[in-house]
Amino acid sequence: MVSALPNDSADTATKSTAELTSQLAHQVAELVHDEFALVQSEMTEKGKQAGRGAGMLGGAALFGLAALVCLTGCVVAAIALALPVWAAALIVGAAYLLLAGITALAGRKDLERAAPPVPSESIDHAKEDVGWIKTEVTSRAQ
Q1: Residue 31 and residue 3: Cα distance in Å, rounded?
Q2: How far apart are CA 47 and CA 44, in angstroms?
Q3: In 6-119, alpha helices (H)
Q4: What crossing angle do the helices spanning 120-141 and 17-79 adopt, rounded to 10°?
Q5: Residues 34-52: pLDDT tens digits?
Q6: Could you count the other beta carbons within 10 Å of the beta carbon of residue 28?
Q7: N or C: where does the chain have the smaller number of CB atoms within 10 Å of the terminal CB?
């Protein structure tokens, strides 16, 4: 956050309007720069966390797929004890297709409700800064 405006009324009383305006412009520019740096830092960290999480989920999906293939063979073999192998494979495939459809619908619903990624901490800081600036401008105008 930008350093506070001088509170010494004697200091501000001796400065001209042009000097005060120049000081305000400098401090606002510094504030905006600092807020953008905070947004960049926050979004970079969120991106790194998302990347690590996605990599771990990818690895888990690979192992899960290997387990699913093994278990599929087991289920087909078990059903094949009572039915022809082709019928057992058809039943298992249809069950997987049904699960895929249900999962896809649930995933689409969640994606539609998901909020876009927002740098919430930076937004909170910016709101605080705007409130502070309004307070300072109001108190100095009186």
Answers
A1: 9
A2: 5
A3: 9-14, 17-79, 85-113
A4: 160
A5: 888 888 888 888 888 889 9
A6: 13
A7: C
Which tokens go with 120?
A: 């919430």
Question: How high is the pLDDT of residue 136?
Answer: 78
Question: pTM of this prediction?
Answer: 0.45
Q: How far apart are CA 105 and CA 115, in angstroms?
A: 18
Q: Provide the token pair at 81.
A: 């004890």
Burial class (CB in 10 A: 0-12, 13-18, 19+), 10: exposed
pLDDT digits (tens, 9 = 90+) for 65-104: 999 999 999 999 999 999 999 999 999 999 999 999 999 9
